[in-house]
Automatic annotation (TrEMBL):
Gene Ontology, cellular component aspect: cell envelope
Pfam families per UniProt: Redoxin
Signal peptide: 1-29
Species: Cellulophaga lytica (strain ATCC 23178 / DSM 7489 / JCM 8516 / NBRC 14961 / NCIMB 1423 / VKM B-1433 / Cy l20)
Biological process (GO), any one: cytochrome complex assembly
Domain Thioredoxin: 132-276
Protein name: Redoxin domain protein
InterPro entries given in the database record: Redoxin (IPR013740), Thioredoxin-like_sf (IPR036249), Thioredoxin_CS (IPR017937), Thioredoxin_domain (IPR013766), Thioredoxin_ResA/DsbE_sf (IPR050553)
Domain of life: Bacteria
The entry's keywords: Cytochrome c-type biogenesis, Redox-active center, Signal
An example Gene Ontology molecular-function term: oxidoreductase activity
PANTHER family in alphabetical order: THIOL:DISULFIDE INTERCHANGE PROTEIN DSBE, THIOREDOXIN-LIKE PROTEIN HI_1115
Compartments (UniProt record): Cell envelope
SUPFAM superfamilies: Thioredoxin-like
Length: 276
């Protein structure tokens, strides 16, 4: 699955940030085992295995990979997958035609010459995408959670924070949510650590509905609201999920964009260094 994650990382949009609150701010109520959704891979309307996906990748036949499907597409395949479609993540894979594969081979030589330049540009764009940089001190804020309680910057004094931006429609964000309790929250229970997941551009009812669904599957923690993107706009130009680790002095010490297993483990390791 790790190989699949590496493939997916090339195509998924950058998503959500997670702030981990200690027991003072977040209730870590993992009373039951988390029922983690499986990933359903669909190619040309048919379900395929991870092994088949690896073959497509090896043969350079993957054109695009989409986390989730549109409402129209969902209606078209729901009869085939029934409840499995609602209870699991769906990834739709587009493949190249034979003509496109041939054209791509002809372009490959030209692309390889500019590869180094493209990598440098990509790294530069990734850094500039974040308005808040490592070394910056976070500005004053007031965030309201789904229960109506308000969290302010001064409440975080002396605590290590994981600030996370996410959305209910963002599949990488939700995949990260299923891993957060075990990898981040449980190891830091009772410590000076705060998790602050902030919903981007969504109203309270939408967020509450999603968190209720997640709670039924064993994922249970508090989240915060930013319906007008007022808080988010100060941190990021575009893209979720996005994570900021903030030290006990309110200084940003680490930024992670996008979701995969390696990114999450790096976040956990950095938090451990600061908390212990």
């Amino acid at each position: 699955m790790k190989k699949i994650c590496n493939i997916v990382q090339k195509y998924t949009c950058v998503s959500v940030l997670f702030l981990c609150l200690g027991s003072t701010f977040n209730t870590i109520a993992q009373d039951k085992k988390i029922a983690k959704p499986k990933m359903i891979f669909i190619v040309e309307g048919k379900e395929v295995t991870e092994e088949y996906l690896l073959v497509l990748q090896k043969e350079n036949k993957i054109k695009a990979m989409h986390n989730g499907v549109s409402k129209k597409e969902k209606k078209a395949i729901v009869k085939r997958f029934k409840e499995r479609l609602d209870n699991n993540f769906v990834m739709k894979i587009e493949t190249f035609s034979d003509e496109e594969i041939l054209a791509n081979k002809k372009k490959q030589l030209v692309k390889s010459k500019s590869k180094r330049k493209e990598v440098k540009v990509a790294k530069k764009e990734a850094v500039s995408a974040s308005k808040i940089k490592v070394g910056d001190t976070i500005a004053a804020f007031a965030l309201e959670d789904i229960n109506g309680d308000v969290l302010k910057r001064e409440d975080l004094k002396g605590k290590v924070v994981l600030l996370n931006f996410w959305a209910t429609w963002c599949v990488p964000c939700l995949r990260e949510f299923y891993e957060i309790p075990e990898v981040i929250l449980e190891p830091n229970t009772g410590k000076n650590f705060v998790f602050i997941p902030v919903s981007v551009g969504e109203n309270r009812s939408t967020v509450v509905k999603k968190m209720t669904e997640l709670k039924d599957r064993g994922v249970d923690f508090n989240v915060y609201l930013d319906p007008k993107n007022e808080f988010y706009s100060g941190y990021r130009k575009q893209g979720i999920p996005l994570n900021y680790i903030i030290d006990k002095n309110g200084v940003v010490v680490y930024i992670s964009m996008g979701y995969n297993e390696d990114n999450l483990q790096k976040l956990a390791a950095k938090i451990k260094q600061l908390v212990d």
